[in-house]
Amino acid sequence: MKERPILFNGAMVRAILEGRKTVTRRVMKVQPVFRDRLWQVYGAGWGSSVHSVPVVPGHSLAARCPYGQVGDRLWVRESWQDVHPVQVAKGRYAQPGRAGIPGPPGVTYQTIYRADGPYPVVYHCHGHPYRCLQPDPAHLATPAEGGYTGWTPSIHMPRWASRILLEVTAVRVERLQAISRADIRAEGLVCPPELASDDVSPNYRDWYPAAFRALWESTGGDWAGNPWVWVVEFRRVMP
Description:
Elements: E1 3-7, H1 10-17, E2 23-27, E3 33-35, E4 38-41, E5 44-47, E6 52-54, E7 73-77, E8 80-83, E9 110-113, E10 122-125, E11 128-131, E12 142-143, E13 165-175, H2 181-186, H3 202-218, E14 228-237
Parallel strand pairs: 1-7
Antiparallel strand pairs: 2-14, 3-4, 4-5, 6-13, 7-13, 8-9, 10-11, 10-12, 13-14
């Protein structure tokens, strides 16, 4: 079993935490090439009428999947930040294991996540803005009008800060536009209640592909190009 990092934005993190998202699609960096009447990549090949290819252990595709194989785990990277749970007049806090950052013994940061809501209030203490959740009134902390309120990008999240661990349950290679409405729901999208009265109305049928296309393109993806993608199904590993 191997562990690998994977990035998700705030909306998808919330969908995972709520149990709505159990699959993700990522573009294959090396796209299959149609040659000799076969789609070919990584030593594998399949016919032109095939739009979905299971990635099974021992298959040449399995060894090249950057998201692992069935049984491997993915730890989620998301936007985050460390804040001071309390305020002190002097010194800096230190996260256990973070070498080179001085601080009083036994005092740690508290990790917060952008997907959970707005950034906490930033307080000034002795003229310096600290990121803290519950400032100590004895140190004259006052809400800061400006100050630092930035989030650390997900790409910079270390393993210790991750709160979500996923286990891969299935992998396949698929054309992007081959996605079904059931798969779009598994991607975390939920049709508005006013359209979800049944599964046959045109509005209901049309909403899912349009919503997923909009989601895909919002992250810079090329829907019209219909690329081949890795389809990774997963379950959340609870603490």
